[in-house]
Amino acid sequence: MSSYQQLIDDLLQRSQPNFTGFPSKQLAAEFADRLFQFLFGTRKKRLHGSLEIENEFRLLQSHLQTFLQEVIHEAKIIQKITEDFFAELPAIYDVLQKDAQAILDSDPAAKSIEEVLIAYPGFFATAVYRFAHQLHVLKVPVLPRLLTEHAHSQTGIDIHPGARIGHAFSIDHGTGVVIGETTVIGNNVKIYQGVTLGALNVTKGHANAKRHPTVEDNVIIYSGSTILGGETVIGRDSIIGGNVFLTYSIPSSSVVYHKSEIKVKDNNPFPEPLNFVI
Q: Which of the residues 18, 46, 61, 101 could staple to 41 if both were Cys, CB 3.0 to 4.6 A apart?
């Protein structure tokens, strides 16, 4: 057990300017928001002219380098990661446009692509996930989690940066969605609020194993469903109904649903004892 003096020493060490044990959440949030704004800015904040775009691009590169210095202390590695990240930015932008179009095409409430870009929490969470995933691929420690946790705090959607998600991915409403680290999701998949793609076993001994499910192409998963396990595969073109709890694989073109029973009776007189416990 730590003594009071050890606690004071530890807090003093963390207050030193050169202590880098805790990367800045603020830098992570600012970078995610700034990059999102750069790619999908609203009309008021949209950049005008190639010079303004190039200047903002360089500022974003500088921002990322400062962000990387939180956890990496070799200038050459920081430079290489920055170059590699921004080299992938056009591909990230392309896949995000497909994500936005998928939301517009599948949600009757969406009236325009601009509405999706600025008002859909599922699109924002997906965009930040794709930024974070690229840093995860480049083996940047900790910082990808800070990016997705920023999106989580803003939207209620928790996507681990290690998950692999195909194009035309859409999350409708979104609050309560959880997508675990080793989840694999194909193309044209749509999920609704409250869906969990999680692990059956959460012991540390399985840290390097595939713990989360695979969802193949063209699958819809409705609200409140929970799908668990690294060996669980949802076959392509399947539909998972609301509130389903699934821990085993299903073949392609399956329909899985949870059937609950609701009874409506006249309450005067009510013939059965009420056993509710408050």
A: 46
